[in-house]
Amino acid sequence: MACASDGTFQPQVGHTRNIAGLAFAGDGTTLVSGGYDARLCTWDTRSLLEGRSIAFSAPVGMVAMDPTGHFAAVRETISGDGLTIFDAANLHMLMRVLVPPGIAPPKGPRFLEIAIWSPDGNMVARNYGNRTILVQSRSGATEAVLNEKWPLRYVAFDPGGRELLVGSDSPSGEVDIFDTKTWVQTRRLSLGEGSCTEMGFVAPHRLTTVTTVGRITSARLWDTSEQSCRARIELPAGVQVAAYGKGYFVIGYSDGRLQCFDANLHATTPPVPTPHQDAVLTSVAISVAGGRVASAYDDDLIQLWSMPSLRPVGELKSRVSLMQDVSCSSDETHFAVSTPGAVYTWNSVGGPYLTKSLVGLHQRPVISPNMRSVAELEDDGSLGLTALGFTRAGLTSGERSTAGSAPGGSSADFSSAVASKAGIVMSSSSQVVRPGQFRLGIPGFVLRRVTYSANGTWIGTLGVNRRGDVEGRVWGVVDGALKSDFGLSDLGGLAIRSDGVEAAVVVGEAERLILIKLAHPETRLTVPLGHTSLRIPRLVYSPSGKFLAISSDATLLVWDAVARRVLWRRNQAASEAITCLSFRSDDKVLGAGSDDSGIVLWNARTGAPVARLSGHTDTVTAIAFTTSGKGLVSSSTDGTAIVWDYARRRPLATFAVDEDGASLTLLPSRCYAARKAGSWLMAIFYQGQALPFDAFDLLYNRPDIVQQTLVEFLVSAPASRIAGLHRANLYHAAYLQRCRRNGAKPLSLADTSRTLADLPSVNTVVVKAIRR
Predict the structure, then answer these.
(1) How far apart are CA 76 and CA 133, in angstroms?
(2) Is the pTM value of this prediction over 0.90?
(3) Pairing relation of β-strands 174-179 and 83-87?
(4) Pairing between strand 641-645 and 650-657?
(5) Which end is more exposed in the chain, N or C (fewer Cβ atoms within 10 Å of the end residue's Cβ)?
(6) What is the per-residue burial (b if ≥16 Cβ within 10 Å, else e) of 7-42?
(7) Residue 630: which pLDDT band, with cuts at 50, 70 and 90?
(8) What is the C-alpha to C-alpha distance for residues 329 and 161, in angstroms, rounded to an integer?
(9) Any residues with CB less than 8 A from the CB of 63 and at least 6 apart, and which?
(10) CA quadruple 190, 192, 194, 199: dihedral positive or negative?
(11) Distance from C-alpha of 411 to C-alpha of 436, rounded to nearest angstrom
(12) Whether the predicted pLDDT of 647 surpasses 50
């Protein structure tokens, strides 16, 4: 299978929710998977790395691969009865196959659950409702419309493509057989007991079926030409999923075990237990040519097995942690990124590696814009606030408590100041959880929204009680003082001005902007915005407080907070729904991240587009400008954070990290610096195969180049700049020593022209180990 051009790279994001469909392409070296996380991925089954991936606007409910391995048919759950066909080599969309006009709506549900290709790959049979089969060509033309008396179960083409078999939910388990030239029913196969729950061919005229009667599940082998049963066996458990191939089929039982059978219904193995404890089996795929079986589970993992022995051969899984939030320090030497449960930091002076600073956090921690604290919504509905402490080496590490100085003094002062405020309600036991951490809350309310002001000195929350009442509060981050509290009619978006004078809330289906004076919360200005939103609105004040940016779905507007009017409004395509906003420190530029992986920069005063930044491959979750405005940091659900060169409108460096702290810092030149097993967080394509970066260790593992590039771009303070470049020289000395050990010719810091064709510098031992 053709792959991306040599030298391109792919973060190993994998899936983050249940995997709904699996299908092998070609010779079994590539697997395609789709999941409820709205992602479609290809996997290299040799290197166990993710090849390509794309994001949808809705969960993927099914994947079907044509027998040639060239085309993947995918169903998105929201599209209901439509298929999207992709080129399996590069996941480029070829067309959407919709229900043609003139066909009557079906009775019952319209959602597509069945899709199977003809052996030559020219037709696809799929259900339309629960009793109608549509047969369409790859171009979308209708070949046949077949109506059944009973709800449909399964559809199968015979290996020669001359017949189509349709299994229904009739009491006698009938299977209707249609001639694919005339689309006339030629005969009917009666299973005689129970309805057909699984069906597929293992050889010409050899059909296997699975039926369940009461608590007994059985599999039978049929000769479709003679309409006779050749063999029958009773299965040890209920069947969850099944997959069929030439000469073999694999059954996934409801208890998670797998079992392989040959074309004579003989078990090649006893039931094999799943290696994933307590995981539920969701999908199975088989590749006879590649000798592989793949099974997917609700814990987001894919297990590969050899066939027919069902010996585990590897796991396909996400290697990177999803990036959720970003922030940068005022001196631009530190960056912080949050992932589910942790915050990681990078110190441009101390080295090009991400380090874990806070662990044991909840799923979506929010970092303050000044990188001084982290907020997280607790399970009990309160708000946990943790101080981030600075040391000479950067941000300190620790389990939700930090040593060193915190905003306004030590971390102990930080928490004790908060605990002394009587207006703050903590947990039932104590206000101070640990040194450097405390909780905020509202009696009887569960907090649902949290936001910082642009300077990080104020934090606002919205909470809901059992009656549906909404209450907002604004707290001082440094001293824990309760600044203001106010009631609202509905839950919405919230923003706090940096001076602590005003809060902005957008609520209601009609999108009303409410401006609240925090000193006198009863003093309010309500402005109708004139559009509705399906999502929670995003709001952010500019650092000076003169402008307020509001986004809802694909609508973006800027409110002039001084003149009290809408300054400008822009409507984008639905696929470009805005997910995050940030102003540059001079108020002149507004950045907006979107669902389509792009970042658009706008002139904050006129609404004219300034630039579009492309580098992420999935939804952008957060953006933050550096203080000088030279750089921009963004995070994405593609598992990466990017530092952008604002002047050149291009990525300066890409960061990835996993839950164990392994990290990878990558430059556009493909030079990288990896901590622990970080080189496995991304794949690099070479000769049509996805390989880990450490396969090219001597060519691209250059922490000296990475360090020098980042320091020269970001660090302006002379002392910090000298310290950072000194560390780059130490990395370079280590690189020269590594080259001498391996007999390789070293590169100068200025020479990054070597390409993947320079094979003498490739770590061939790693490549051979992967290919085995």
Answers:
(1) 18
(2) no
(3) unpaired
(4) antiparallel
(5) C
(6) eebbbbbbbbebbbbbbbbbebbbbbbbbbbbbbbb
(7) confident
(8) 64
(9) 20, 21, 22, 23, 32, 33, 34, 40, 72, 73, 74
(10) negative
(11) 4
(12) yes
Residue with tokens 């509001």, as numbered in its chain = 550
- At residue 198, what is the residue type? E
660, 667 Cβ separation under 8 angstroms: no
pLDDT of residue 758: 54
Residue 541 has pLDDT above 90, yes or no: yes
SS3 737: helix
Tokens of 53: 């991936």
If residue 486 lies in a helix (H) or strand (E), which one and from where to where? strand 482-488
Q: Kindly state the DSSP code that residue 730 receives in the 8-state scheme.
A: H
Residue pLDDT, tens place only, 8-27: 777 888 887 788 889 888 77
Pairing of strands 650-657, 281-287: unpaired
Q: Which residues pair with 115 in a beta bridge?
A: 126
What average pLDDT does the chain have? 79
* CA nearest neighbour of 560 among 508, 504, 517, 613: 504
Extract the tokens encoding 495: 């923003």
pLDDT at 298 over 90: no
Q: Measured between alpha carbons, how far is 692 from 12 in angstroms, rounded to an integer?
A: 10
CA angle at residue 578 from 85 to 381, to 5 degrees?
110
Task: Give the number of C-alpha atoms closer than 13 A to the C-alpha of residue 609, restricted to the C-beta side.
Answer: 10
| Residue linked to tokens 């006129």 | 606
What is the dihedral angle through the alpha carbons of 465, 471, 472, 473, rounded to the nearest 10 degrees? -80
Helix axes 718-742, 703-714, angle to 10 degrees: 170
CA end-to-end span of the chain: 18
DSSP one-letter code for 353: -
Edge to edge, what strands does the sheet with 302-306 contain? 281-287, 292-297, 302-306, 312-316
Q: Which residues contact 120 (CB under 8 A, 6 or more apart)?
A: 67, 161
Considering only 214-218, 426-430, 520-524, which range has the smallest mean pLDDT? 426-430
Residue 596, token pair as written in the block:
């389509």
Confidence band, pLDDT 50/70/90 cuts, at residue 549: very high
